[in-house]
């Protein structure tokens, strides 16, 4: 998978999270944003960050990709931080046969449970890793 393709998948998953009412990805007012891709602002009080994790290589012959995305939640409330990732888990774990604008996702599943990482500057950090078995609809095969 190219860097451009992986970033596009992350953005489309962030848009799905907004559709699932987990948070706000592309607001009209940037101060209302709660879902980030790539970098989470240092001054963010509560939010969700989606980054690409180490993933297996794409299948050589059938154009299938096995992308792992890490979802990080940050919140001053332990319960709220955990609840954000519970919503991610409930919407993506063992989900099959769905599409975004550029991706056909045949299956997604959590690669474990929600991991309590640390408390940093008054905010609790949690992580959940989800693998997406997908195919880029723009690739010709």
Describe this entry's structure for a reader:
The protein is of the alpha+beta class and 141 residues long. It has a single domain, classed as STM4215-like. Strands 1, 2, 3, 4, 5, 6 and 7 form a 7-stranded mixed sheet that branches. A hairpin with a 3-residue loop joins strand 4 and strand 5.
CATH topology name, in short, is: STM4215-like
Discrete helix count: 2
Find the count of extended strands (DSSP E, 2+ residues). 7
Q: How many domains, as an integer? A: 1
CATH class: Alpha Beta
Mean pLDDT: 88
Net shape: globular
Describe the largest sheet: 7 strands, mixed
Give the DSSP E fraction (strand runs of 2 or more residues).
35-45%
Low-confidence stretches: none
* CATH architecture descriptor: 2-Layer Sandwich
Give the SSE string.
Answer: HEEEHEEEE
* Percent of residues in helices: 10-25%
Q: Give me the Rg, rounded.
A: 15 Å
Q: SS-based structural class?
A: alpha+beta
Measured distance between first and last alpha carbons: 14 Å
